[in-house]
Structures are given as C-alpha cells and as structure tokens.
C-alpha cells in the first residue's frame, strides 16, 4: 500500500488532488493544526474518503532555562543504544505494549493492522542507525532485560520523542520518567533549544509525566487520513477502455459496470454510491484501470477505484464505487 505522510498548516485543494493522483497515493496521512481542520472538511475533496483519525497534543520544554531533575531509581540503568544489540528487547516491548493502542492507524479500516507494529519498529531502527547526530535511542535495563526505551529525533536545534514504550510488567517503577530525564539531560548539554512530545489526547499518563518534568502544552493537532486508494488492489486489476463521447463520465461509468458484472458473475450487485473526480477534459478513447482496494467478498462489500487517462496520458477522471451483493 502506497502511504504518504506530511504536515500542513492549511489545505490547498488543487495541489492536494493533483499530488494524490500523480503519485498514485493510497493513503495520505496529513497532520494539521486543530484550529485549521475546517479547511479540509470545507474543501473540494468531497469525493475522497476522509477520516479524522486522531487528535494530538504537543508538550514542550525550553532546554536552556530548564531546571532538570536527576534520575531517581538506582535499580534502573539507562544506556544509549548506539547499535542494534538491544533491538530484540525493544521489538518485544513494541509488539506487546502497542497492541491495540488506539492511534490514527487503527482508525483507518484500509490500513493493515498487522503492519502497524512493524512500522513502529522501523521508526526505532531509523533513530538508532540513521547516523544523524540528534537521532538517539535510550534503553532502560532492569534485572538484565530491556524494560523500556525512548527513541528521539532532532533537527535545527529542536528534539522530540519519536517513540517510547515500557513493558507492562515494569510499569509504576519510574522507568519512563528516568529515561525521559536522561534524554533531557543529553539534549540540554548538547545545546538544543527545546524538547517536545506528541501524543494522543486520551493518553493522559504521558501528559502527566511531561508536566511533572516541566513541560507545558504548546498545541493541538488533528491527523487526517485521505483514502485515495489509487494503486493498491486486493484483487487482480482490470484494464478497460471506453469512448469519451458526449458524456465521458457516463461512458466510463457504463464500462465499469460491465467489468463488475464480469468479475462478480453470478452475484446480484447493488451500487450504493459512485463519486467522480474530474481532472481534465476527456477526448477520444479513455483507457482506465479498475482496482479493488477493499474486496470483502465474504461480507458482500467491495470498494472499487477506476482511474481513467486520455490517449495522451493525461489523467482525465477518477471514479469511486461502493458495491454490495
């Protein structure tokens, strides 16, 4: 699945539509300030499947003036993870601590849930192996095992938590606070300006921990998923062509229905919705690819995408179908 990520202040509808189409994006994950999210819902992206996936809070601390507390649990050894030797322990924490954790990925039914924890593991590896000076990872060793970790990223004098986790059996033993203090001490001594943490609004435990260490709330953001679904298909894709004629959209609609009747032969199909996004005036014959990013054959629900180009290769239109049988 082709997933793209980015942050914006406000939405530029024309650029967003064109970017999604030209890059065959399946899911665009956009983070924007909470007070500008209306620009998305009021936009001309009506045909794209949009999900308000979560709300984040941002907490920060200004490091030059911060009065930091030292680690206060002598049973914990905090070690900078400079190579991959601790990855097994970190991976185990990610696999268990984040199982079922409610974040924006779990809000989107098209994102494979089994891939979420693998993405977290990759983020942590990138902090360890990136070679960038500000990218760091610390592990908490307790009773000869990895009991917690914190991976951080930094750029332009600003550091932030990329991912952290504590094993369930060790919670309540000040592990998170001690790793956090180690990270703060490092970035303050290294001359960084600030240190930030982002978390879901419902994660009160992390927010309380940050406040105890001198952080203050700085902002709120929404994470929005746009399911444009332009490359992935759970079934074999089908190539079709149709003359533009007097009504190109209607012509492509009819050609798409013939494909559905053939692919789902013997089933009584019901089109519950169809939306068309027009990008360029059609002329001559249109060549299109029909894909099935959501194909719940057993449940009787199918989502189909039709991407139609003119003979000169210019994208003419997108058609989105919800089918039931």
Strand proportion: 35-45%
What is the CATH superfamily of the domain at 70-189? Answer: Gcn5-related N-acetyltransferase (GNAT)
Give the number of DSSP strands: 14
Q: Please give the order of strands in the largest beta sheet.
A: 1-2-9-3-8-7-6-5-4
Q: What's the overall geometry?
A: elongated
Structural class assignment: alpha+beta
Any guess at the CATH architecture of the domain at 70-189? 3-Layer(aba) Sandwich
Low-confidence blocks of residues = none
Integer average pLDDT? 87
If you compute it from the alpha carbons, what radius of gyration comes out, rounded to the nearest whole angstrom?
24 Å
Distance separating the two termini: 26 Å
Give the helix level as a range of percent: 10-25%
> Would you list the SSEs in sequence order as H and E?
EHEHEEHHEEEHEHEEHEEEE
Q: Could you describe the largest sheet, including whether it forms a barrel?
A: 9 strands, mixed
Fill in the CATH topology of the domain at 70-189: Aminopeptidase
**How many distinct helices?**
7
CATH class of the domain at 70-189: Alpha Beta
Structure, briefly:
By secondary structure, the chain is α+β, with helices and mostly antiparallel strands. It contains seven helices and 14 strands.
Question: How would you describe this protein?
Answer:
This protein is α+β, with helices and mostly antiparallel strands and 325 residues long. Among the domains are: 70-189, Aminopeptidase; 238-324, Thiol Ester Dehydrase, Chain A (Roll). Helices cover 24% and strands 38% of the residues. It has helices at 13-22, 38-41, 87-97, 116-129, 175-189, 204-212, 248-263; strands at residues 3-7, 27-33, 49-62, 77-80, 136-142, 145-155, 158-166, 194-200, 216-227, 238-243, 270-278, 285-296, 301-309, 315-324. A 9-stranded mixed beta sheet has the order 1-2-9-3-8-7-6-5-4, with helices on both faces. α3 runs antiparallel to α4 (116-129).
């Amino acid at each position: 699945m082709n997933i793209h990520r980015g942050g914006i202040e406000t939405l530029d509808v024309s650029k967003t539509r064109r970017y999604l189409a030209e890059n065959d994006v399946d899911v665009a994950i956009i983070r924007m300030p909470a007070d500008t999210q209306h620009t998305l819902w009021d936009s001309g992206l009506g045909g794209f499947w949009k999900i308000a996936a979560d709300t984040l809070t941002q907490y920060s601390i200004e490091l030059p003036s911060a009065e930091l507390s030292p680690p206060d649990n002598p049973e914990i050894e905090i070690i900078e993870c400079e190579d991959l030797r601790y990855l097994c322990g970190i991976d185990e924490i990610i696999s268990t601590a984040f199982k079922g954790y409610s974040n924006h990925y779990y809000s989107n039914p098209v994102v494979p849930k089994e891939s979420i924890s693998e993405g977290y593991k990759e983020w942590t590896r990138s902090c360890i192996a990136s070679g960038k000076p500000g990218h760091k990872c610390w592990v908490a060793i307790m009773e000869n095992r990895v009991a917690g970790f914190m991976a951080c990223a930094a750029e332009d004098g600003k550091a932030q938590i990329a991912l952290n986790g504590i094993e369930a059996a060790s919670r309540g033993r000040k592990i998170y606070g001690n790793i956090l203090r180690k990270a703060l001490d490092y970035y303050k001594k290294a001359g960084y300006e600030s240190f930030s943490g982002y978390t879901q609004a419902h994660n009160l435990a992390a927010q309380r921990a940050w406040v105890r260490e001198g952080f203050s709330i700085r902002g709120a953001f929404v994470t929005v998923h746009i399911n444009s679904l332009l490359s992935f298909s759970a079934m074999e894709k089908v190539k079709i062509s149709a003359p533009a004629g007097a009504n190109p959209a209607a012509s492509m609609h009819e050609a798409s229905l013939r494909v559905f009747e053939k692919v789902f032969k013997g089933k009584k199909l019901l089109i519950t919705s169809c939306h068309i996004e027009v990008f360029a005036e059609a002329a001559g014959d249109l060549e299109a690819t029909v894909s099935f990013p959501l194909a719940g054959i057993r449940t009787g629900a199918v989502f189909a995408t039709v991407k139609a180009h003119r003979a000169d290769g210019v994208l003419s239109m997108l058609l989105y179908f919800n089918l039931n049988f």
